[in-house]
Amino acid sequence: MKIQHSFSLYYSLLLLFLATTAILISPSHGALGKCNPSDYKALMNIKKSLNNPYELTSWKPNTDCCEWYEVKCDRKTNRITELSLVRSSSVGGLSGQIPSSSGSLPYLESIVFRNYKNITGSIPLSITKLKHLSSLDLSYLSLSGPVPNFLNQLTALTYLGLSFNQFTGSIPPNLSELKNLVAMDLSMNRLTGSIPETFGSFPGPTTLHLYLSHNQLSGRIPKSLGALDGSIDLSWNRFVGDASMLFNPYHGSAYYIDLSRNQFEFDLTKVKFPMSLIWLDLSHNKIFGRIPDEIKGLVGLQTFNVSYNNLCGKIPYGGKMQSFHNTAYFHNKRLCGPPLMGCKNLNA
Ligand SMILES: *[C@@H]1O[C@H](CO)[C@@H](O)[C@H](O)[C@H]1NC(C)=O
Ligand SMILES: *[C@@H]1O[C@H](CO)[C@@H](O)[C@H](O)[C@H]1NC(C)=O
Ligand SMILES: *[C@@H]1O[C@H](CO)[C@@H](O)[C@H](O)[C@H]1NC(C)=O
Fold this sequence. Notes:
By secondary structure, the protein is α/β, with parallel strands linked by helices. The protein has helices spanning 2-25, 37-49, and strands at 71-73, 80-86, 96-97, 110-114, 119-120, 135-139, 144-146, 159-161, 166-168, 183-185, 209-211, 218-219, 231-233, 238-241, 256-258, 263-264, 279-281, 288-289, 303-305, 310-314, 334-336. The chain folds into 3 domains: 31-131, Ribonuclease Inhibitor (Leucine-rich repeat, LRR (right-handed beta-alpha superhelix)), CATH 3.80.10; 143-245 and 256-266, Ribonuclease Inhibitor (Leucine-rich repeat, LRR (right-handed beta-alpha superhelix), Alpha-Beta Horseshoe); 273-290 and 299-348, no CATH class. The chain binds 2-acetamido-2-deoxy-beta-D-glucopyranose (NAG) (3 copies). The site of one 2-acetamido-2-deoxy-beta-D-glucopyranose (NAG) has 7 residues, from loops.
């Protein structure tokens, strides 16, 4: 009798054990609700590889991942489409690497890891499996090493944001193969080398926003860049030579051009500006010649700065030109007229 009793206890314990394991290993069980079992598994692996951080407390085992924070689940397919971790408070924090299990969420359209200075390492190769990934934002982290050239395999990418990291090496020419790309932000890294020739021929939408500021990029910029539209920020680098091809009034509608803090050296006199310009900062270069009179026609211009160059002659009078502070013009070779001093000693 005694033996039989302990046997049945054993038996029930065994059953309990089996049942529990079944819940754990076969997440198709009701506890997961709408959550796709394979997404569930990938998310649990992500949580584990980030050492169960405070940010992911809502990711409780055996609950419906469609209800968790930091992810978005598509209403129709119930697949995870967004993974978004943005540090916004001083509480918690993530450390470690970008989890390679992110590549096991095949319906991801957007990944954001932002503002975690203890996230180090590189971008895992596994994310090239994400054929629906349209936005990759890995900024304000401590990622290092080269910008991976395998990112060219993310064919659905429209936005690539890797700013405020410690990436080194040169920009992979490969990235110009991203045929849906609308914006690329590689600013605030330690990139060297020059802008790849291929960057003038992105096959995708005509508007491209290219942000490369605060790196150690050098050399001449490719002539083909002239075909770019949208905005371009090359400030705080070591570019040299001509940049006048960026101002193509017939070929583009660029509205934001920041070339400041480089060593660009070209004649501004014959440059024709696109009418769409809103922001133009050319300060701290070696630009020479005069400010062309047509610039008065740029009615949308809100920011204008040509200080610290080798410009000369009279500042065009009219349009918005006198509405800018004199520091927008100072420290040039022989630039004069309002808002700077008059030109009386100049045969201009
Ligand atoms: C980041 O790492 C530093 C140094 O290891 C540590 O002191 C700090 O607590 C970490 N911060 C977070 C949010 O993990
Ligand atoms: C382009 O990217 C692929 C990986 O996606 C790589 O194998 C190849 O070497 C790259 N080509 C260049 C020129 O970097
Ligand atoms: C123009 O740029 C110079 C140099 O960076 C700066 O000192 C000045 O304040 C700027 N002026 C305006 C009006 O933006």
